[in-house]
Amino acid sequence: MQAQIKLVISDIDGTILDSNHQVDDQLKDQVKALQKQGIPFVLASARSPRGMYGLAKELELDQNPIATYNGALIVPSNPKKLDQALVNHVIDPNEAGKLIDILQSQFPTVSINPYAGADWYANARSPWTDEEAAITQDKPIIKDPQSLLEEGVGINKFLLIDQPTKISHLEDYLKALDFKHCDFYLSKDNYLEVTAKGVSKENALREIAEVYQVPLENCLAIGDNFNDIPMLQLAGLGIAMANAPKEVQAAADDITSSNDDHGVSQALIKWVL
Fold first, then answer.
1. Which of 81, 87, 159, 180 is close enough to 76 for a disulfide, judged by CB 3.0 to 4.6 Å?
2. Which pLDDT tens digit goes with each residue over 235-265?
């Protein structure tokens, strides 16, 4: 017997957004129906706050927190309340410095994108940053990443972008080194994310469930990628998208239709509404 769902947490890219990066056009109605029942719908993503505010507004989620940077920074979905973070995990500055040194000396083609609060920085403009800007509707501040550390800026996340083979090599290389306070994981085959150790959508789910005082077995999590697996497994009900890789589908309790076929709306109708 499935426990009653009292909180929904959902990934964004490949989940509520279709292949053209548009919001599932049926979702707004389902979110309204959830709100009538007092069930929060919370977005959790590797994106920055700026990459999520517009979507939260479109879905009228003004009252709900958003878990940005995979949960490194959980803030209200109102841009004016960025300083009221519920959770703010920054990367150890010494390890951040070490990481930047390695990238600049040994992996010079990798696009280095530090994120701090709502700001996206990049070491240089490139086709990679242009592509990311088109997806998130945000623009990077071009700056040497070491100077951020010198200014005492707390970095919530690094996004490292290159060709998939280079990123795969970089991931293996970094994981073999002694980074005690960082976690590394792929969010796409050419995107390596770096956050403080223990930051994950799984912990974001824990922290948000605590804010709402909802037991984990009454939570529904929806996602489509490898970084969603721990969250899908922790929630009382974990739903994978039909467009998710097989390993992600195998980790979920059930599978909904694809992101181009109203998968999240269908999941909400079937399991919650």
1. 81
2. 999 999 999 999 999 999 999 999 999 999 9
247 Cβ contact partners less than 8 Å away, ≥ 6 residues apart? 226, 229
Name the domain count of the chain: 2
Backbone φ, ψ for residue 217 (5° rounding): -70, -15
Residues 191 and 203 in one domain: no
Cα 128 from chain centroid (whole Å): 18
Rounded distance between C-alpha atoms, residue 155 and residue 160, angstroms: 14
> Cα separation of 31 and 69, whole Å?
23
User: Is there a contact between 185 and 172 (Cβ–Cβ < 8 Å)?
Assistant: no
Beta bridge partners of 113: 159
In this prediction the pTM is 0.88
Each residue of 152-175: pLDDT tens digit?
A: 999 999 999 999 999 999 999 999
Q: What are the strands, taking DSSP E only, across 47-203?
A: 65-68, 73-76, 87-88, 111-116, 119-122, 141-142, 157-161, 182-188, 191-196
Smallest CA-to-CA distance from 148 within 137, 138, 156, 136 is with: 156
Domain of residue 76, residue span? 7-88+199-272
E-assigned strands of 26-70?
Answer: 41-43, 65-68
